[in-house]
Amino acid sequence: MELFHKYQRNVLAVISDVSMPRHGKTDSEAGLDFVRQLRRYDPELPVLMQSSDEHNEEKARELSARFINKSSPSLLSEIRSFLTENLGFGDFIFRMPDGREVARARDVREMREILPTIPAESLVYHGRHNHFSIWLMARSEFDLAGRIRPQKVSDFDDTEDVRENLIDKLRESHSSAHRGMISDFDPHRFSHDSFIRIGMGSLGGKARGIAYLNLALAQNEEFDFGGMIVEVPRTIVIAAEEFDNFLDANGLREFAVHCTDDLEIASRFIEAILPDALRRDLSVILRSVTGPLAVRSSSLLEDSLHQPFAGIYSTVMFPNRGDSIEFRMMQLGNAIKLVYASAFFRNAKSYLDNTGYRAEEEKMAIIIQNVVGAEHGDRFYPSFSGVAQSYNYYPIGPQKAEDGVVHAALGLGRLVVDGGQALRFSPKHPEVLPQFSSPDAVLDNSQKGFYALDLRIECCDAASVLEQYEQWYDLRDAEHDQTLQFIGSVYHKDDERIVEDFNLPGPRVVTFNNILKHQSIPFAKAISDVLEIAQKGMGGAVEVEFACEMGDFGRTVRRGKKRRSPKLYVLQVRPFIMRGGNVDIVKYDIPRRQCLCRSMQSLGQGIFDDIEDIVFVRQDRWESSKNRRIAGEVGKLNDILNKEKRPYLLIGPGRWGSADEWLGIPVQWSQINYAKVIVEASPQGYNVDPSQGTHFFQNITSLRIGYLTIPPGADIKDEKAEAFVDWDWLAQCEIVNETKHLRHVRLPRALTVVLDGQRGQADVVKPGFQISGGNSQ
Predict the structure, then answer these.
(1) Which residues contact 521 (CB under 8 A, 6 or more apart)?
(2) Would you say residue 349 has pLDDT above 90?
(3) How far apart are CA 409 and CA 510, in angstroms?
(4) What phi and psi, each to the nearest 5 degrees, are found at residue 386?
């Protein structure tokens, strides 16, 4: 009742058990008493009561509540029916008081058009039952629903006043509130809308985040973004109901859930046919939408507050070129099918297993956006792009964790999210670049090339699911395109300095000096404001993917041509799971020699005491050129341990999960899904910065997997080393399995892993040492 009173204006319906605890004891009629009290406040509120005792059905009906037997074989479909009929998720069906249908509206526009023709008796019937406000709330029209709901039919002199009031409210809402709002697809006016939905059902987690930020940017006038233009690219969302329609019409659901071959799944999906109505809508859109398109996933679970997914499903970019609408429609349709298919790929199923969800529970909406960037011959890419996070796990110098961190790179953002070599800085201290502490460090740590969309490639066939249309190019190509000059510098050998003069000879490097040091555009201020808006709205730490196009900045524009200003585009926003959980950790005094590993840079919170297996990369056999082969070996051992249901500790060099095999082991989730704690421990000289901007890193934190970073070469034999690995002890453990580069050992008793997320410290304690006190996870 307390929750009901607090949120009464926003309650759409109530679903309640009949029997539930009250005052510490099970009360067989507590739910009925609860509904009786609700009825005093809202006699028309939709209520669903559920019970395994069918005798409660009559009691529920006496309270005007719908009843469902929990043992019913059609339980889920009955709940779905209740939601559709009572919460406005379907068409608005105008009925007479006797239940006879007289009209229906698919969206707000249709409702506005047919209201003048609806019989007065039907208007009064729906008005008295709050049906208009409930239906509008289900379509995210919260402000409009809030203005209609308090009004009663009795407040008006006659029925025509009720009708006029509704029409006026709908008209006002459309003209004033659609800035930043979601519009249902209309073939006659969609070209004026920035965020469009096709079909019914959920937008999915990723699209919800984009929709929220689109609205927030439109309404936050107090943020000036340093004078920079900030916006969301035009976005078209195919709602999740179309996913169900596609699977069911083509008989794919059962096959996709059980098939384990990604290429076979992709082939079957490509051969399938999209619903006719969807194809017609997309063909209309393609007549006015030109330029390269990105087709992204937006599943129900993706980017949710409690279990964010990042990079688990596919994104397909394609050139969208050709004179024929039919040809471009084929490309777009195949891209959509491949994204649908990725919901059932092995990598996605493995990740879902870790979350406790099943593949058949997932539903997929689709996001279609114009790729941000400009055309340069056969290449298309933005001036730069990347990922910004409102929390920095590794602050240095004047930086604070709450200042956030940005990872940025020339070209498409794949370099960043895949864990490549990108620039890292705090938007509050953009001048502090620890990875560029000297000219030699700039040469070592600057990105060596960039990703761009190859406009010559045609999309899409089944095999393309294993490929990427983003191609890798040399920095010389960016200099030829005149895009490197915005964010690049030159290493001048004569005086060993980094300068911004491309007339000089010397290696080209990506430093962002013009933007961060000389502040040619207010990018740091703009991205900092975006993080603040997103964090405030989502109530916690956030991660934002962005792209920036410099337009005509620094270029001479022909007379009569409008100058294009630099723009910052926000592509995605998701909640960012903090490393400190809700488990308090006592600061233990664990002797140095009792530790297998100790880290002063760790992620995760809690105590694990069920790990008896360790898989590690043998330092005597490791070479960075073998990292991709090592990833395959890790996957084979992971499969064995997974079948035996034995969680394990994984130790190896560089960034785990990096797509750049020179920076670490490029494992996929399906290859490590049974690892409970991962250690990043590199040999001396293999200096790779920890990456926070990657999808892999985001999923590590959201799945609460422990992640320890050890400085290169750190060994327990070095008494001065705060962080270390006891490699000698590890070499003496019982060997269970070996590959060319890996060793799997098993301990007679479990390790104890203590993860202190608040301090960022961790100890992996050898068997036999007793830890007392504290709370365990």
Answers:
(1) 228, 515, 550, 553, 566
(2) no
(3) 8
(4) 165, -155
